[in-house]
Protein backbone atom coordinates (compact mmCIF):
# COMPACT_ATOMS: atom_id res chain seq x y z
CA UNK A 1 0.00 0.00 0.00
CA UNK A 2 2.82 2.40 0.80
CA UNK A 3 6.61 2.38 0.99
CA UNK A 4 6.70 4.48 4.14
CA UNK A 5 7.28 2.69 7.42
CA UNK A 6 4.93 3.23 10.36
CA UNK A 7 6.23 5.83 12.79
CA UNK A 8 6.76 4.63 16.31
CA UNK A 9 3.87 5.13 18.70
CA UNK A 10 4.74 7.93 21.09
CA UNK A 11 2.61 9.61 23.72
CA UNK A 12 3.26 13.06 22.25
CA UNK A 13 2.28 12.11 18.70
CA UNK A 14 -0.95 13.93 17.81
CA UNK A 15 -4.37 12.47 17.23
CA UNK A 16 -5.75 12.75 13.69
CA UNK A 17 -9.37 13.92 13.50
CA UNK A 18 -10.98 13.20 10.12
CA UNK A 19 -14.12 15.05 9.03
CA UNK A 20 -15.91 14.39 5.75
CA UNK A 21 -19.04 15.16 3.76
CA UNK A 22 -21.60 12.37 4.22
CA UNK A 23 -22.01 11.24 0.60
CA UNK A 24 -20.55 7.84 -0.23
CA UNK A 25 -18.45 9.28 -3.05
CA UNK A 26 -16.72 11.60 -0.57
CA UNK A 27 -16.48 9.11 2.28
CA UNK A 28 -14.95 6.24 0.32
CA UNK A 29 -11.59 7.94 -0.44
CA UNK A 30 -11.32 9.27 3.13
CA UNK A 31 -12.07 5.80 4.48
CA UNK A 32 -9.15 4.47 2.42
CA UNK A 33 -6.91 7.20 3.78
CA UNK A 34 -8.02 6.38 7.32
CA UNK A 35 -7.16 2.71 6.73
CA UNK A 36 -3.69 3.65 5.48
CA UNK A 37 -3.03 6.02 8.38
CA UNK A 38 -4.06 3.40 10.92
CA UNK A 39 -1.63 0.93 9.33
CA UNK A 40 1.09 3.57 9.59
CA UNK A 41 0.57 3.98 13.31
CA UNK A 42 -1.59 7.10 13.50
CA UNK A 43 -4.37 7.12 16.09
CA UNK A 44 -7.34 8.31 14.07
CA UNK A 45 -10.83 9.52 14.90
CA UNK A 46 -13.52 9.86 12.24
CA UNK A 47 -16.49 12.21 12.62
CA UNK A 48 -19.05 10.73 10.25
CA UNK A 49 -22.65 9.66 9.56
CA UNK A 50 -24.08 6.71 11.45
CA UNK A 51 -25.20 5.07 8.19
CA UNK A 52 -21.52 4.46 7.41
CA UNK A 53 -20.38 3.60 10.93
CA UNK A 54 -19.46 0.00 10.12
CA UNK A 55 -17.25 1.00 7.19
CA UNK A 56 -15.55 3.74 9.20
CA UNK A 57 -14.83 1.49 12.17
CA UNK A 58 -13.39 -1.15 9.83
CA UNK A 59 -10.52 1.28 9.12
CA UNK A 60 -9.34 1.07 12.71
CA UNK A 61 -10.48 4.62 13.43
CA UNK A 62 -12.62 5.56 16.43
CA UNK A 63 -16.06 6.50 15.14
CA UNK A 64 -17.54 9.79 16.35
CA UNK A 65 -21.18 10.22 15.23
CA UNK A 66 -22.72 13.20 13.55
CA UNK A 67 -26.22 13.87 14.86
CA UNK A 68 -29.58 15.38 13.97
CA UNK A 69 -29.66 17.09 10.55
CA UNK A 70 -25.90 16.61 10.11
CA UNK A 71 -26.31 12.81 10.27
CA UNK A 72 -27.13 12.37 6.59
CA UNK A 73 -27.98 8.95 5.19
CA UNK A 74 -27.24 9.53 1.52
CA UNK A 75 -29.01 6.39 0.32
CA UNK A 76 -32.21 7.43 2.08
CA UNK A 77 -31.79 11.02 0.85
CA UNK A 78 -31.78 10.06 -2.83
CA UNK A 79 -34.42 7.37 -2.48
CA UNK A 80 -36.72 9.82 -0.68
CA UNK A 81 -35.57 13.29 -1.80
CA UNK A 82 -36.44 16.55 0.00
CA UNK A 83 -39.67 17.06 -1.94
CA UNK A 84 -41.68 15.13 -4.59
CA UNK A 85 -40.69 17.37 -7.51
CA UNK A 86 -36.95 16.94 -6.86
CA UNK A 87 -36.32 14.35 -9.59
CA UNK A 88 -38.02 16.54 -12.21
CA UNK A 89 -35.75 19.51 -11.58
CA UNK A 90 -32.91 20.44 -13.91
CA UNK A 91 -29.62 19.18 -12.51
CA UNK A 92 -28.44 22.73 -11.76
CA UNK A 93 -31.50 23.27 -9.58
CA UNK A 94 -30.98 19.93 -7.85
CA UNK A 95 -27.43 21.00 -7.04
CA UNK A 96 -28.75 24.10 -5.29
CA UNK A 97 -31.18 21.98 -3.27
CA UNK A 98 -28.41 19.54 -2.33
CA UNK A 99 -26.03 22.30 -1.27
CA UNK A 100 -28.71 23.77 0.95
CA UNK A 101 -29.88 20.48 2.47
CA UNK A 102 -26.54 18.70 2.71
CA UNK A 103 -24.04 21.49 3.37
CA UNK A 104 -25.58 24.79 4.50
CA UNK A 105 -28.57 23.86 6.66
CA UNK A 106 -26.64 21.29 8.76
CA UNK A 107 -23.55 23.51 9.13
CA UNK A 108 -24.41 24.71 12.68
CA UNK A 109 -24.97 21.13 13.83
CA UNK A 110 -21.77 20.00 12.09
CA UNK A 111 -19.88 22.74 13.91
CA UNK A 112 -21.36 21.63 17.22
CA UNK A 113 -20.42 18.01 16.53
CA UNK A 114 -16.89 19.09 15.57
CA UNK A 115 -16.48 21.03 18.82
CA UNK A 116 -17.73 18.02 20.77
CA UNK A 117 -15.21 15.83 18.92
CA UNK A 118 -12.37 18.16 19.97
CA UNK A 119 -13.55 17.87 23.57
CA UNK A 120 -13.69 14.06 23.35
CA UNK A 121 -10.10 13.92 22.13
CA UNK A 122 -8.87 16.39 24.73
CA UNK A 123 -10.58 14.39 27.49
CA UNK A 124 -9.05 11.20 26.16
CA UNK A 125 -5.52 12.61 26.59
CA UNK A 126 -5.06 16.30 27.55
CA UNK A 127 -1.38 16.10 26.56
CA UNK A 128 -2.02 14.94 23.01
CA UNK A 129 -2.54 17.57 20.34
CA UNK A 130 -4.77 17.20 17.27
CA UNK A 131 -4.26 17.49 13.52
CA UNK A 132 -7.43 18.12 11.54
CA UNK A 133 -7.76 16.16 8.28
CA UNK A 134 -10.75 17.67 6.49
CA UNK A 135 -12.46 16.68 3.25
CA UNK A 136 -13.24 19.87 1.37
CA UNK A 137 -17.04 19.51 1.30
CA UNK A 138 -17.44 19.19 5.06
CA UNK A 139 -18.49 22.77 5.83
CA UNK A 140 -18.78 22.25 9.57
CA UNK A 141 -15.17 23.29 10.24
CA UNK A 142 -15.33 26.51 8.21
CA UNK A 143 -16.28 28.68 11.22
CA UNK A 144 -12.92 27.73 12.72
CA UNK A 145 -11.06 29.43 9.88
CA UNK A 146 -13.28 32.52 9.93
CA UNK A 147 -12.67 33.48 13.53
CA UNK A 148 -15.36 31.54 15.39
CA UNK A 149 -14.59 31.15 19.08
CA UNK A 150 -14.35 27.78 20.75
CA UNK A 151 -15.92 27.22 24.18
CA UNK A 152 -13.85 28.57 27.08
CA UNK A 153 -12.57 25.10 28.01
CA UNK A 154 -11.05 24.58 24.53
CA UNK A 155 -8.11 26.79 23.62
CA UNK A 156 -7.36 26.66 19.91
CA UNK A 157 -3.64 27.24 20.19
CA UNK A 158 -3.29 24.46 22.77
CA UNK A 159 -5.33 21.86 20.88
CA UNK A 160 -4.81 22.03 17.13
CA UNK A 161 -1.36 21.72 15.61
CA UNK A 162 -2.61 22.36 12.09
CA UNK A 163 -4.95 21.15 9.37
CA UNK A 164 -4.80 19.31 6.07
CA UNK A 165 -7.50 19.52 3.38
CA UNK A 166 -8.19 16.72 0.91
CA UNK A 167 -10.55 17.30 -2.01
CA UNK A 168 -12.15 14.38 -3.81
CA UNK A 169 -13.57 16.35 -6.69
CA UNK A 170 -12.26 18.43 -9.56
CA UNK A 171 -9.90 21.33 -8.83
CA UNK A 172 -11.67 24.53 -9.88
CA UNK A 173 -8.65 25.91 -11.70
CA UNK A 174 -8.75 29.43 -13.13
CA UNK A 175 -7.30 29.34 -16.62
CA UNK A 176 -7.96 30.73 -20.07
CA UNK A 177 -7.34 27.19 -21.30
CA UNK A 178 -10.41 25.90 -19.46
CA UNK A 179 -14.08 26.84 -19.39
CA UNK A 180 -15.58 27.72 -16.00
CA UNK A 181 -15.88 24.59 -13.88
CA UNK A 182 -19.23 22.88 -14.37
CA UNK A 183 -20.12 24.62 -17.64
CA UNK A 184 -20.81 22.32 -20.61
CA UNK A 185 -18.23 23.95 -22.89
CA UNK A 186 -15.59 21.84 -24.67
CA UNK A 187 -11.96 22.21 -23.66
CA UNK A 188 -10.25 24.39 -26.24
CA UNK A 189 -6.74 25.77 -25.71
CA UNK A 190 -6.44 27.10 -29.27
CA UNK A 191 -5.93 30.89 -29.65
CA UNK A 192 -9.59 31.28 -30.59
CA UNK A 193 -10.72 29.13 -27.67
CA UNK A 194 -8.59 31.08 -25.21
CA UNK A 195 -10.00 34.36 -26.53
CA UNK A 196 -13.56 33.11 -25.98
CA UNK A 197 -12.67 31.89 -22.50
CA UNK A 198 -11.65 35.41 -21.44
CA UNK A 199 -15.11 36.68 -22.28
CA UNK A 200 -17.16 33.93 -20.69
CA UNK A 201 -18.59 33.90 -17.22
CA UNK A 202 -15.82 34.45 -14.65
CA UNK A 203 -14.21 31.30 -13.32
CA UNK A 204 -15.05 30.38 -9.72
CA UNK A 205 -12.39 30.50 -7.04
CA UNK A 206 -9.83 27.76 -6.64
CA UNK A 207 -10.50 24.80 -4.37
CA UNK A 208 -7.72 22.86 -2.67
CA UNK A 209 -7.33 19.42 -4.18
CA UNK A 210 -5.12 16.41 -4.01
CA UNK A 211 -4.86 13.37 -6.27
CA UNK A 212 -7.57 10.82 -5.70
CA UNK A 213 -6.34 7.97 -3.53
CA UNK A 214 -5.30 4.79 -5.27
CA UNK A 215 -8.04 2.19 -4.82
CA UNK A 216 -7.73 -0.14 -1.89
CA UNK A 217 -7.42 -3.69 -3.16
CA UNK A 218 -9.84 -6.12 -1.61
CA UNK A 219 -8.68 -9.72 -1.94
CA UNK A 220 -12.05 -11.11 -0.85
CA UNK A 221 -13.77 -12.92 -3.73
CA UNK A 222 -17.14 -11.31 -4.54
CA UNK A 223 -20.03 -13.55 -3.53
CA UNK A 224 -21.87 -13.91 -6.83
CA UNK A 225 -22.60 -17.27 -8.47
CA UNK A 226 -21.40 -15.92 -11.82
CA UNK A 227 -18.08 -14.49 -10.58
CA UNK A 228 -16.07 -17.54 -11.65
CA UNK A 229 -17.40 -17.04 -15.17
CA UNK A 230 -15.83 -13.59 -15.18
CA UNK A 231 -12.45 -14.74 -13.87
CA UNK A 232 -12.39 -17.68 -16.29
CA UNK A 233 -13.04 -15.31 -19.17
CA UNK A 234 -10.11 -13.14 -18.10
CA UNK A 235 -7.85 -16.18 -17.79
CA UNK A 236 -8.43 -16.97 -21.47
CA UNK A 237 -6.28 -13.97 -22.39
CA UNK A 238 -3.25 -15.68 -20.84
CA UNK A 239 -3.41 -18.53 -23.34
CA UNK A 240 -1.10 -18.58 -26.32
CA UNK A 241 -2.47 -16.87 -29.43
CA UNK A 242 -2.41 -20.23 -31.20
CA UNK A 243 -4.67 -21.83 -28.57
CA UNK A 244 -8.19 -22.12 -30.08
CA UNK A 245 -9.79 -21.60 -26.65
CA UNK A 246 -8.53 -18.01 -26.63
CA UNK A 247 -11.05 -17.11 -29.34
CA UNK A 248 -13.86 -17.78 -26.88
CA UNK A 249 -12.90 -14.78 -24.73
CA UNK A 250 -15.69 -12.23 -24.48
CA UNK A 251 -15.48 -8.47 -24.23
CA UNK A 252 -16.52 -7.40 -20.74
CA UNK A 253 -18.49 -4.19 -20.29
CA UNK A 254 -18.93 -2.91 -16.73
CA UNK A 255 -21.64 -0.31 -16.16
CA UNK A 256 -22.53 1.47 -12.92
CA UNK A 257 -25.27 3.94 -12.14
CA UNK A 258 -23.49 5.52 -9.18
CA UNK A 259 -24.89 6.47 -5.77
CA UNK A 260 -26.46 9.87 -6.53
CA UNK A 261 -28.22 9.64 -9.90
CA UNK A 262 -29.64 6.21 -9.12
CA UNK A 263 -32.31 5.72 -11.81
CA UNK A 264 -31.22 2.58 -13.75
CA UNK A 265 -33.15 3.78 -16.79
CA UNK A 266 -30.57 6.54 -17.23
CA UNK A 267 -27.62 4.30 -18.03
CA UNK A 268 -27.88 0.67 -16.93
CA UNK A 269 -31.02 -0.21 -18.90
CA UNK A 270 -29.75 1.36 -22.19
CA UNK A 271 -26.49 -0.59 -21.78
CA UNK A 272 -28.29 -3.89 -21.16
CA UNK A 273 -30.42 -3.30 -24.24
CA UNK A 274 -27.51 -2.14 -26.39
CA UNK A 275 -25.72 -5.48 -26.03
CA UNK A 276 -28.62 -7.81 -25.27
CA UNK A 277 -27.85 -11.43 -26.05
CA UNK A 278 -24.55 -10.68 -27.82
CA UNK A 279 -22.60 -13.92 -27.53
CA UNK A 280 -19.26 -12.11 -27.68
CA UNK A 281 -20.08 -9.64 -24.89
CA UNK A 282 -20.62 -9.97 -21.14
CA UNK A 283 -22.26 -7.03 -19.36
CA UNK A 284 -21.76 -6.54 -15.61
CA UNK A 285 -24.17 -3.96 -14.14
CA UNK A 286 -23.50 -2.53 -10.67
CA UNK A 287 -26.46 -0.92 -8.89
CA UNK A 288 -24.36 0.67 -6.15
CA UNK A 289 -26.24 -0.17 -2.94
CA UNK A 290 -26.36 -3.34 -0.85
CA UNK A 291 -29.61 -5.30 -1.20
CA UNK A 292 -30.63 -3.24 -4.24
CA UNK A 293 -32.23 -4.87 -7.28
CA UNK A 294 -33.64 -3.56 -10.52
CA UNK A 295 -37.23 -4.18 -9.48
CA UNK A 296 -36.78 -2.01 -6.40
CA UNK A 297 -36.26 0.90 -8.79
CA UNK A 298 -39.36 0.04 -10.79
CA UNK A 299 -37.45 -1.59 -13.64
CA UNK A 300 -39.50 -4.25 -15.36
CA UNK A 301 -37.45 -5.69 -18.21
CA UNK A 302 -36.25 -9.14 -19.15
CA UNK A 303 -32.60 -9.40 -18.13
CA UNK A 304 -30.53 -10.43 -21.18
CA UNK A 305 -28.80 -13.81 -20.93
CA UNK A 306 -25.38 -12.14 -21.24
CA UNK A 307 -26.00 -9.70 -18.36
CA UNK A 308 -24.88 -10.13 -14.78
CA UNK A 309 -26.41 -7.88 -12.11
CA UNK A 310 -24.59 -6.94 -8.90
CA UNK A 311 -26.38 -5.06 -6.15
CA UNK A 312 -23.11 -3.89 -4.64
CA UNK A 313 -19.64 -4.65 -5.96
CA UNK A 314 -16.20 -3.10 -5.67
CA UNK A 315 -15.48 -1.18 -8.85
CA UNK A 316 -11.88 -2.33 -8.72
CA UNK A 317 -12.84 -6.00 -8.47
CA UNK A 318 -15.01 -5.70 -11.58
CA UNK A 319 -12.68 -3.41 -13.55
CA UNK A 320 -9.84 -5.91 -13.21
CA UNK A 321 -11.80 -7.94 -15.81
CA UNK A 322 -13.22 -5.11 -17.95
CA UNK A 323 -12.61 -3.90 -21.49
CA UNK A 324 -14.89 -0.86 -21.21
CA UNK A 325 -16.15 1.08 -18.18
CA UNK A 326 -19.51 2.87 -18.56
CA UNK A 327 -20.56 5.33 -15.85
CA UNK A 328 -22.10 8.75 -15.25
CA UNK A 329 -18.79 10.56 -14.77
CA UNK A 330 -18.53 10.78 -11.02
CA UNK A 331 -15.04 11.86 -9.92
CA UNK A 332 -14.42 8.57 -8.14
CA UNK A 333 -15.58 6.46 -11.08
CA UNK A 334 -13.23 8.29 -13.44
CA UNK A 335 -10.30 7.71 -11.10
CA UNK A 336 -11.17 4.04 -10.64
CA UNK A 337 -11.09 3.68 -14.43
CA UNK A 338 -7.68 5.32 -14.63
CA UNK A 339 -6.32 3.28 -11.71
CA UNK A 340 -7.34 0.08 -13.49
CA UNK A 341 -6.35 1.17 -16.99
CA UNK A 342 -9.84 0.72 -18.46
CA UNK A 343 -11.13 3.12 -21.16
CA UNK A 344 -14.52 4.67 -20.53
CA UNK A 345 -17.81 5.77 -21.97
CA UNK A 346 -19.31 8.49 -19.79
CA UNK A 347 -22.78 10.03 -19.69
CA UNK A 348 -23.38 12.48 -16.88
CA UNK A 349 -24.31 15.98 -15.89
CA UNK A 350 -24.68 17.83 -12.63
CA UNK A 351 -22.34 18.35 -9.69
CA UNK A 352 -18.85 17.76 -11.12
CA UNK A 353 -20.00 15.25 -13.74
CA UNK A 354 -20.10 17.67 -16.66
CA UNK A 355 -16.52 18.72 -15.96
CA UNK A 356 -15.36 15.14 -15.50
CA UNK A 357 -16.99 14.11 -18.79
CA UNK A 358 -15.14 16.83 -20.69
CA UNK A 359 -11.84 15.77 -19.11
CA UNK A 360 -12.38 12.14 -20.09
CA UNK A 361 -12.85 13.17 -23.72
CA UNK A 362 -10.05 15.78 -23.76
CA UNK A 363 -7.50 13.41 -22.25
CA UNK A 364 -8.29 10.68 -24.76
CA UNK A 365 -9.23 8.02 -22.22
CA UNK A 366 -12.81 7.61 -23.36
CA UNK A 367 -15.96 8.88 -25.04
CA UNK A 368 -18.22 11.61 -23.65
CA UNK A 369 -21.79 11.00 -24.81
CA UNK A 370 -22.67 14.57 -23.87
CA UNK A 371 -25.86 13.78 -21.94
CA UNK A 372 -27.08 12.08 -18.78
CA UNK A 373 -29.67 9.80 -20.40
CA UNK A 374 -28.20 8.35 -23.59
CA UNK A 375 -30.14 6.25 -26.05
CA UNK A 376 -29.40 2.61 -26.72
CA UNK A 377 -27.75 3.64 -30.00
CA UNK A 378 -25.54 6.23 -28.28
CA UNK A 379 -24.29 3.72 -25.74
CA UNK A 380 -23.64 1.07 -28.36
CA UNK A 381 -21.83 3.53 -30.62
CA UNK A 382 -19.63 4.85 -27.82
CA UNK A 383 -18.60 1.38 -26.68
CA UNK A 384 -17.87 0.21 -30.21
CA UNK A 385 -15.64 3.25 -30.81
CA UNK A 386 -13.64 2.45 -27.68
CA UNK A 387 -13.30 -1.23 -28.57
CA UNK A 388 -12.26 -0.50 -32.14
CA UNK A 389 -9.66 2.18 -31.35
CA UNK A 390 -6.76 0.94 -29.23
CA UNK A 391 -5.60 4.50 -28.60
CA UNK A 392 -8.19 4.86 -25.83
CA UNK A 393 -6.71 1.89 -23.97
CA UNK A 394 -3.14 3.04 -24.59
CA UNK A 395 -3.88 6.52 -23.27
CA UNK A 396 -5.68 5.39 -20.10
CA UNK A 397 -2.81 3.04 -19.33
CA UNK A 398 -0.40 5.94 -19.66
CA UNK A 399 -2.43 7.82 -17.07
CA UNK A 400 -2.55 4.72 -14.88
CA UNK A 401 1.24 4.67 -14.82
CA UNK A 402 1.31 8.35 -13.88
CA UNK A 403 -1.26 7.84 -11.13
CA UNK A 404 0.75 4.97 -9.68
CA UNK A 405 3.65 7.38 -9.25
CA UNK A 406 1.42 9.70 -7.17
CA UNK A 407 0.74 7.88 -3.92
CA UNK A 408 -1.88 9.83 -2.00
CA UNK A 409 -1.33 7.83 1.17
CA UNK A 410 2.35 8.75 1.22
CA UNK A 411 1.49 12.39 0.58
CA UNK A 412 -0.98 12.57 3.46
CA UNK A 413 1.38 10.71 5.81
CA UNK A 414 4.29 13.01 4.96
CA UNK A 415 2.18 16.12 5.43
CA UNK A 416 0.97 14.94 8.82
CA UNK A 417 4.57 14.37 9.87
CA UNK A 418 5.48 17.87 8.66
CA UNK A 419 2.61 19.41 10.64
CA UNK A 420 3.60 17.40 13.69
CA UNK A 421 7.13 18.76 13.49
CA UNK A 422 6.43 22.38 12.52
CA UNK A 423 3.17 22.96 14.45
CA UNK A 424 1.84 25.66 12.13
CA UNK A 425 -1.48 25.97 13.98
CA UNK A 426 -4.76 27.14 12.49
CA UNK A 427 -4.82 30.51 10.72
CA UNK A 428 -8.10 32.33 11.25
CA UNK A 429 -9.65 35.11 9.25
CA UNK A 430 -10.85 37.73 11.67
CA UNK A 431 -13.09 40.65 10.91
CA UNK A 432 -10.01 42.85 10.52
CA UNK A 433 -8.91 40.84 7.46
List its salient traits.
Rossmann fold, 433 residues, globular, 16 helices, alpha/beta, six-stranded parallel sheet, 2 domains
Terminus-to-terminus distance: 42 Å
CATH class designation of the largest domain: Alpha Beta
Task: Give the uncertain stretches in residue-range form.
Answer: 198-206, 208-217
CATH topology of the largest domain: Rossmann fold
Number of helices: 16
E-strand count:
11
Average pLDDT number: 85
Order of helices and strands: EHEHEHHHEHHEHHEHEEHEHEHEHHH
Number of domains: 2
Helix share, percent: 25-40%
Derived structural class: alpha/beta
Strand fraction band? 5-15%
Nearest-angstrom radius of gyration?
Answer: 23 Å
Q: What composes the largest sheet?
A: 6 strands, parallel
Which sequence of strands runs across the widest sheet? Answer: 8-7-6-9-10-11
Can you name the CATH architecture of the largest domain? 3-Layer(aba) Sandwich
Shape: globular
CATH superfamily of the largest domain: Glycogen Phosphorylase B
How are the secondary structure elements laid out?
Layout: E1 15-19, H1 24-39, E2 44-48, H2 53-57, E3 62-65, H3 74-79, H4 91-104, H5 107-124, E4 130-135, H6 142-145, H7 156-159, E5 160-166, H8 191-198, H9 227-235, E6 251-256, H10 268-274, E7 281-286, E8 307-310, H11 315-319, E9 324-327, H12 331-340, E10 344-346, H13 353-363, E11 366-368, H14 376-388, H15 390-404, H16 408-422
Parallel strand pairs: 1-2, 1-4, 2-3, 4-5, 6-7, 6-9, 7-8, 9-10, 10-11
Amino acid sequence: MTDLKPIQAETHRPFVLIVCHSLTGHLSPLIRIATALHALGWETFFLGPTAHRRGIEATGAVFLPLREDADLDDKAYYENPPFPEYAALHWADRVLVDLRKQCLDPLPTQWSCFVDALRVLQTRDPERKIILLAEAFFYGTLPLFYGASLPHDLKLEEILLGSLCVSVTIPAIRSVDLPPAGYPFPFDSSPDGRYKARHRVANPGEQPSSPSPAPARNNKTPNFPWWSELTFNTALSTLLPSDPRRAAKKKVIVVAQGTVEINPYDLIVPTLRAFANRSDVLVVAILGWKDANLSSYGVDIEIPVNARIANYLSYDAALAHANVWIHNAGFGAVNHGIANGVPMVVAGEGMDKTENSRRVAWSGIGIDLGCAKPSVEQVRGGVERVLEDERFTERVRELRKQSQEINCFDMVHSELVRIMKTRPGIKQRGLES
